[in-house]
Structure formats: structure tokens, C-alpha cells
Specification:
The complex is a heterodimer of chains A (477) and B (336). Chain A has 477 residues and is of the alpha/beta class. Chain A contains 13 helices and 16 strands. In chain A, the strands form 4 sheets. A 5-stranded mixed β-sheet of chain A has the order 13-12-16-14-15, with helices on both faces. A 4-stranded antiparallel β-sheet of chain A has the order 1-7-6-3, with no helix packed on it. A 4-stranded parallel β-sheet of chain A has the order 10-9-8-11, sandwiched between helices. In chain A, a hairpin with a 5-residue loop joins strand 12 and strand 13. Chain A starts with 33 loop residues before the first strand and ends with a helix. With 336 residues, chain B is mainly alpha-helical. Chain B has 2 domains: 163 residues, no CATH class; 136 residues, no CATH class. Chain B contains 15 helices and 2 strands. A two-stranded antiparallel sheet of chain B has the order 1-2. Chain B starts with 11 loop residues before the first helix and ends in a 10-residue tail after the last helix. The chains are: A alpha/beta (477), B mainly alpha (336). Chains A and B meet through strand 15 and helix 12 of A and helix 1 of B. The structure holds iron/sulfur cluster (SF4) (2 copies). One iron/sulfur cluster binds next to helix 9 and helix 10 of chain A.
Chain lengths: 477, 336
């Protein structure tokens, strides 16, 4: 038995996982239209490389990665490009973003795929391949994977695979592990090769015995499957790294500096498909749960409209609002008429019964429950106090930016204070202030330059005049 | 609505209700050993607290019903009523409660914002202003020379006059008696043979202390309070009184007497554990409660008042912001 470590805090919300694991992953029918956002990852928006009216093949690149931190976007099926326009996207702001709309032709005609033998390929070629295949973290952070697979000069001891899936309702990784364990193992081997890691540890919360058994059967000696205690947010990368290795990665530091790198299991599977078959990331598994007749997991093409998926799961009457992500960290979709993106691991259709409104907030009674439940070992009640008072300097002193916005504090607050909202607000205010300061610094520098230039010009003019008059004087003599 | 969409927590009302519930055993013990006077003063205190709370909420333009329902005013009232002599003139408890709610709670910003424990502010005001009334405790029923029926109690509390001399029903508390007797240079062993002393503390009052302990254990089990405060408070008093008792048993009462006597138990589980006026960090709680324990023992041993819990609490309340600031636990990943 491996020695497991412990992190402070955490909560045990009701799981609601059994509802969506009753049947295997379903492939929904091809939708009539796909809307594919060009910004589905952390970093720069991909640049469209197709034009309206063009026919594209399944897996064809339609958006090129721009700059280093970026990722490519592909056509999820063959068809015709309808438009390249601003469309509503699944973002809490409700703003629109540049999307390519595609009308499938039903042929599912692939581009020519180019498999790679990873053992005989150097890591930098593999990284380019992943960048071109649009592989990003599928746990929700959507950070381009090729960047995380570049160890530079750091020695990576442990590659951690994250199959914890601690948020209630979400079961897409669970089903993937049950049904496609071998793909995950192969993907992990490619990652280990690229990182030159010594060992692979796969952490799965012990509420998923089927997934643990499937992964154990598939992994052989390649990696160690570790059942970790079920506690939210045990699937946070930092928390899982802590539990498996004992290492605490401080906020603002990279785990690679401490010899660990962490990937979601679904990312490992897509790395495998990108390398072994040359398939780009054009679909993902998403849990559709909550107030639907038939909750389950769907392997959906990127760009599928969310309401199309909800319909597949058996839409119930009143519903028209849904959460993207889990109930602890997710957000309200501005509408269900938005496309599925690479980050969409779960859609929970809401109802008053599932998510009753919380009572109006009361004052903080300093009961300390929030601090007890905080996995980052913060003092949420103090952060709340400072954020509310607009005392952002103090909030930063109390490590506001170490807050991972897991929501444990709000979950346990007897006064029903929406604590996380206050932290988000404080963070965005601080960012805005910093931007403003940068802008005003720039303006000041510009202003100083201008003053200096005017002065210099004056000076030069005066000197020229002086020279002139001196010359005139000498000529007069 | 924003994430998290889920919540699992007792509301403030439920927390306060459980604390009130945890006080019931002690109230029952008080009635059993000292008669029903305490019930009258609890009612008076409750009514005063709710009226003052409602009036202050109205004045401060806050929603009255949710805040009245939170139970915090009621708890302040009960704690104060349980800290002062049960049978005093009606204006004693009314003045104390009104002061606690209006001045100590609402003028400092209401629920969650008051730096001082309101019940203890009320107590301090009363003991300074009305020292005579505040030291007339009822004698345990088994020791009283005359029995009081309910109508006599009401008559006394509202008119202030009693048919026969007050001494027949009242006596000084065990702690008080200890102090006066020590002044008369009597050794402890002799003092403890006085009829008001029981096995560990005073007759009757030791059972009340046990009932507070019982209620406190319930609060611990319900996770309403953590162990830090009661443990540190009780342990500190135990250690100091233990050492001095060993050093000079004739001058210093034993540690068990200090625990069972006076307000040690209600202080440990119900007063010092007030979240609003105490520190939030675990280490801070230990420091806060040890400080209060030490001050309580000092005041009892060397001070001018028989019991020291109220002043100890108020003095430690002052230190809370400082304690909290210096006991921040290390953040994840930044431990040494
Ligand atoms: S849980 Fe809520 S009431 Fe308790 S200390 Fe934290 S913020 Fe205050
Ligand atoms: S949201 Fe932030 S402050 Fe609240 S428990 Fe999570 S990490 Fe701690």
C-alpha cells in the first residue's frame, strides 16, 4: 500500500453520480449544425484558415494556433462552412466570441490521418503534433497540453494522472476509465516518454470501484492505480498531488519545479488518439445530468449545441437554465443555445428542487466553519471582510490569490454568504487596478517623454539661436 | 445564482437554537436546587432582549423578522440571566439585558460586529452599579431556612419587598464565602466544612456546573463548538489552582473546586465559545481561552470580585484582533 497524504479542509457534498452511470457512453446523432468557437483554450484565439462556403473534411484544421500559448481547432465532421462570425459562447459573461459554423454533410469523411510511432519520435516533434491536434486539458482548465509536456531542464519524477473526479454529478472521466482504460494507459505512456518521468500514479476517488478495477486491469506494471479518499476538492490538481506524493505546490509555482506534472485522464486518452491515430481533438465525453429524464454520458462533437444534447437526455418540462461544470465550481450558462466546447465536462439542468435558493445572507458570525473547510488553508472570513470593505491590499496579504475558488467555504457558511463571489469580485478589482496602473504608468512615461522632447527642442532652438547670433556677431566684426 | 449551487450547513438560527437547548439541563438543575425564581428572570430577560432587539433593528432599518429569528438576542438574554442572582428585583435583569442588547450589541454594529460579549458587558455593568443586589444569591433549597413559593417570588421580584428577612433565603455564593472567610484568616479545610459546600463545589451549584458540562459536551458532539476553548480554559484554571493548592492548601482552594465553583463551566462552554467575540484560528482559540482562564483565576484569587469570568472574558475580547492577526495558520504550500 502506498502511503497517502492528507490536505486540510474539504467537504462531502451529495454525489449524484449513480444517475448518470447507469448506461455506457452514448454517441448522439449528428446535429444539423455545429458552432465551433475559435477560443476554447487558455491562450491566444486560433486564427481561422478556412472561408465561408468551403467544404471541409472531418479532422481538417479550421483554426491555426496563434503564438506559443494557443491550440488548433478542427472540423468535427465533414461539411460546409456556413459562417465565421461572433456567436454566443458558453461563458459566464454572456459575451459573444468568434466561431466557425459548419453544416455537416453526413458523410463523416476524414482527412488523411498520420499516425506516429512515439518511441521513435523526439519529444519536440510530438509536442508540435499535439499542438496541431488541438489537445488541451480536458479536466476543465483547457491549458494546451504540449506546453505542460515540455519539461525543459527540470527532472520530472512523477506523472500524476487525475481520475479523481471529485465534483458531484460529473461522471465523464469515470465512464471513460471504465470503458477505455487501455487508451488512458497508452496515453500516459506517451506522456511519460515525453516527460522522461520515473513513475505514473493514477489517483481515483474510492467512490468509483468499477473505474479502479478497469484501470488496474489495464495498467499492468506501467502505472500504479491508487484509490484516494472521496472528498471534495480531492480532484483539484494541487490536492491530488498532495494526497499522492505529499508535495504541496504553492500558489504561483509550477508543480514541475517540484518534479511532478499532472494531467486529467481524458487528456491522456486524447494524447493517445492524436499520436497513435493522428486524430485531432474533435469530440469529448460530457455528462448530461440534473433535471433530465435520462442522465448519462455522451460522446459529443465539439460545437454541438447544448440544447441538442439536453434533448438527447430527455428534456423535462420547465427547464431552460443549465450549469456548465459541477455544482461546486460551475457557472450558469447564459443560454442552452450555446455550443459544447473542449472545457465542457458536464451540463446540469437546473431545477428549484435540485438547487433550492439559499436564504438571504446574514452577517458573518465568525464561526470559523469556512476556515475549517478551506483546502488552501486560508481564512475565508477575513478575506470576506476585507473584500467587502474594498480593502484589497489586506485581502492580498491574507493570500487572496491562493484561493482556488472551490466553494467549500460558501458550502458550509451558516450565514449563507456567497463568499466566493466576493473573492472573484476582489480579484477582478485588483486585476483592473493593476491594468489601470500599468496604463497610467505608460501614460506617465509617455508624458515624461513628451515634456522632455519639448524641453529638448526648446533647448536646441535656443542653442541654434545663440549660435546664429554668435555667428552673425562675428560676421559683423 | 452562482457556484457553489449546493450548501450544507445549519443556519444561524439552528446553531443558536442548539446552544439554547444545551442550556436546558443547567436551567433544570437550577430549578431543582434553587427553586423556580430563575424561570421568572429568564422570561424577563427574554422579553426585554426581544423588545430591545426589535426596536434597535427598526431604528437601524434592518429587516426585523430574520434577525429576530436568528436567536442571538435570546441567547444573550439567557446567558445574562444565568449569570446573575436568579431572584433580584425585576429592574436588575431588565437593565442588564437592555444594556447588553442596545449598547453592547447594536451600537457596535449588531450581530457579528460587536467586539465584546454582550452578556458579559451586561453583567459587568450590573456588578459595578448594583453590587448589593448582585451578590444576593438564593441559598440552595435544602439549606434555606424558609421556603419560597412561586407567588412570593413574583411578589418580591416585582415589588422588592419580602414578608420576612431576606437572609432566610439567600446566601453568598461558595466562591464569595471562600473569599470572605479567607479574609477572616480561616484555613480552607475549615471553610470547606461550612454547610454550603458540597462534594466538589457548592451544594446544588456543583450539579448545575455538571449540567453545563453536559450541555457543553452536546455542543461539542454537534460540532457547534470546537474543543479548543473549553479545553484551554478549564486546563489553565486547573493547572494554576492545582499548583497553588499544592504549594499552600490552606490558602488556595483545590482545582476541582475552582472548576465546579462559580462560572467556570458556563464560561468554558457557553460564554467564551461565543464565535463573534472570540478568535477564529485554532491556535488563537487556545491562547484566548488560556488567557481568560489565567485572568479568571487571578481575579478569583487576588481580585476584589468573587468570580472573575466576566472580566476575564471582556479583557480577552480586547485582544482578539491581535490574537487572530498573529495566529494565522500557514497557507497551503507555504508551510515551513
Ligand atoms: S462560515 Fe460564514 S459565518 Fe462562519 S466565519 Fe465563515 S463567513 Fe463567517
Ligand atoms: S473558495 Fe477559496 S477561500 Fe473558499 S474554501 Fe475554496 S480556497 Fe478556501
Amino acid at each position: 500500500m502506498r502511503k497517502l497524504y492528507h490536505f486540510n479542509g474539504g467537504v462531502h457534498p451529495p454525489q449524484h453520480k449513480s444517475e448518470s452511470t447507469r448506461h455506457p457512453i452514448i454517441k448522439p446523432p449528428l446535429p444539423e449544425k455545429l458552432v465551433i468557437p475559435l477560443h476554447q483554450h487558455i491562450g491566444n484565439t486560433a486564427k481561422p484558415v478556412v472561408s465561408k462556403g468551403e467544404r471541409v473534411l472531418k479532422g481538417q484544421k479550421i483554426g491555426r494556433a496563434e503564438g506559443y500559448v494557443s491550440s488548433a481547432i478542427h472540423a468535427p465532421t465533414s461539411g460546409t462552412i456556413l459562417s465565421i462570425e461572433q456567436e454566443p459562447v458558453p461563458h459566464p459573461s454572456g459575451l459573444r466570441d468568434l466561431c466557425i459554423s459548419l453544416e455537416p454533410d453526413g458523410m463523416e469523411e476524414w482527412i488523411e490521418l498520420q499516425p506516429v510511432d512515439y518511441l521513435n519520435t523526439d519529444p519536440s516533434t510530438l509536442r508540435n503534433r499535439l499542438r496541431d491536434a488541438g489537445v488541451v486539458g480536458l479536466g476543465g482548465a483547457v491549458f494546451p497540453s504540449f506546453i505542460k509536456l515540455n519539461p525543459s531542464n527540470r527532472k520530472i519524477r512523477t506523472l500524476v494522472l487525475n481520475g479523481a473526479e471529485c465534483e458531484p454529478y460529473i461522471t465523464c472521466d469515470d465512464m471513460l476509465m471504465r470503458q477505455r482504460a487501455a487508451e488512458i494507459v497508452e496515453g500516459a505512456k506517451i506522456m511519460r516518454h515525453m516527460l522522461q518521468a520515473d513513475e505514473i500514479l493514477l489517483g481515483i476517488e474510492d467512490n468509483k470501484p468499477e473505474a479502479i478495477a478497469a484501470m488496474k486491469a489495464a495498467s499492468g506494471d506501467e502505472m500504479e492505480v491508487v484509490a484516494v479518499p472521496t472528498i471534495y476538492p480531492g480532484g483539484g490538481a494541487k490536492q491530488l498531488i498532495r494526497v499522492l506524493t505529499g508535495i504541496e505546490v504553492p500558489a504561483g509555482e509550477r508543480s514541475t519545479d517540484l518534479g511532478v506534472q499532472c494531467f486529467n485522464v481524458a487528456t491522456a486518452a486524447s494524447v493517445y488518439r492524436a499520436v497513435r491515430y493522428g486524430e485531432p481533438l474533435i469530440s469529448r465525453i460530457v455528462t448530461i445530468a440534473g433535471n433530465v429524464a435520462n442522465p448519462g454520458n455522451y460522446e459529443a462533437l465539439i460545437g454541438t449545441m447544448i440544447d441538442h444534447l439536453i434533448l438527447q437526455a430527455g428534456k423535462n418540462e420547465e427547464e431552460n437554465v443549465a450549469i456548465m461544470g459541477g455544482p461546486m465550481m460551475g457557472f450558469d450558462l447564459p443560454s442552452v443555445r450555446v455550443p459544447l466546447v473542449k472545457a465542457t465536462n458536464c451540463i446540469i439542468v437546473k431545477s428549484e428542487k435540485l438547487f433550492p435558493k439559499r436564504p438571504a445572507p446574514m452577517p458573518c458570525i465568525r464561526c470559523g466553519r469556512c476556515a475549517e473547510s478551506c483546502p488552501a488553508d486560508l481564512q475565508p472570513q477575513e478575506l470576506y471582510w476585507f473584500s467587502k470593505a474594498g480593502n484589497f491590499g489586506k485581502a492580498q496579504e491574507y493570500a487572496l490569490f491562493d484561493c482556488i475558488e472551490c466553494g467549500c467555504c460558501s458550502y458550509v457558511c451558516p450565514s449563507s454568504i456567497p463568499l466566493v463571489q466576493f473573492y472573484r469580485y476582489a480579484k477582478s478589482e485588483i486585476w483592473a487596478q493593476e491594468r489601470e496602473k500599468k496604463a497610467s504608468d505608460l501614460a506617465r512615461i509617455r508624458h515624461d517623454f513628451r515634456i522632455e522632447r519639448i524641453e529638448r527642442e526648446k533647448r536646441e532652438k535656443a542653442e541654434r539661436l545663440a549660435q546664429k547670433s554668435a555667428k552673425a556677431g562675428s560676421e559683423q566684426e | 445564482m452562482n457556484s457553489p449551487y449546493l450548501a450544507k450547513t445549519p443556519s444561524v438560527t439552528e446553531i443558536m437554537a442548539k446552544v439554547l437547548l444545551a442550556l436546558i439541563p443547567a436551567i433544570a438543575a437550577l430549578v431543582w436546587f434553587f427553586g423556580p425564581a430563575i424561570l421568572v428572570s429568564l422570561c424577563l430577560a427574554s422579553a426585554t432582549a426581544l423588545l430591545c432587539e426589535a426596536a434597535m433593528l427598526k431604528l437601524r432599518k434592518r429587516p426585523v423578522t430574520p434577525f429576530l429569528m436568528d436567536g442571538s438576542a435570546l441567547l444573550t438574554a439567557w446567558l445574562l440571566a444565568l449569570s446573575i442572582p436568579p431572584m433580584g428585583p425585576w429592574w436588575l435583569i431588565v437593565t442588564g439585558t437592555a444594556f447588553a442588547i442596545v449598547i453592547a450589541k447594536h451600537l457596535y454594529g449588531g450581530l457579528g460586529s460587536n467586539p465584546f460579549n454582550p452578556a458579559m458587558v451586561g453583567y459587568a455593568v450590573l456588578i459595578i452599579s448594583f453590587p448589593v443586589q448582585m451578590t444576593q444569591w438564593l441559598a440552595p433549597a435544602s439549606l434555606a431556612q424558609a421556603h419560597l413559593d412561586f407567588s412570593t417570588i413574583l411578589h418580591y421580584m416585582f415589588s422588592g419587598s419580602l414578608p420576612s428577612p431576606l437572609d432566610a433565603y439567600t446566601s453568598a455564593t461558595p466562591l464569595d464565602t471562600l473569599k470572605t472567610q479567607l479574609h477572616l484568616a480561616k484555613p480552607i479545610t475549615e471553610i470547606m466544612t461550612l454547610p454550603i459546600y458540597g462534594k466538589m463545589g457548592g451544594v446544588g451549584s456543583e450539579w448545575v456546573a455538571a449540567a453545563y458540562l453536559l450541555g457543553g459536551l452536546y455542543l461539542l458532539q454537534q460540532k457547534i463548538i470546537t474543543w479548543h476553548v473549553p479545553f484551554a480554559f478549564v486546563a489553565t484554571i486547573f493547572v494554576f489552582s492545582g499548583i497553588f493548592n499544592l504549594y499552600d492548601p490552606a490558602l488556595h482552594a483545590g482545582p476541582f473546586f475552582e472548576l465546579a465553583g462559580g462560572a467556570t463551566m458556563i464560561g468554558a462552554f457557553f460564554i467564551l465559545t461565543d464565535p463573534v467575540t472570540g478568535p477564529t484560528t485554532p491556535r488563537g482559540k487556545l491562547i484566548f481561552a488560556s488567557g481568560a482562564g489565567f485572568l479568571t483565576w487571578i481575579i478569583r484569587t487576588y481580585g476584589g470580585y468573587p468570580d472573575g469570568v466576566a472580566f476575564a472574558v471582556l479583557l480577552m475580547n480586547i485582544c482578539v484582533p491581535l490574537i487572530d492577526a498573529y495566529t494565522q495558520p500557514p497557507v497551503f504550500g507555504k508551510k515551513k
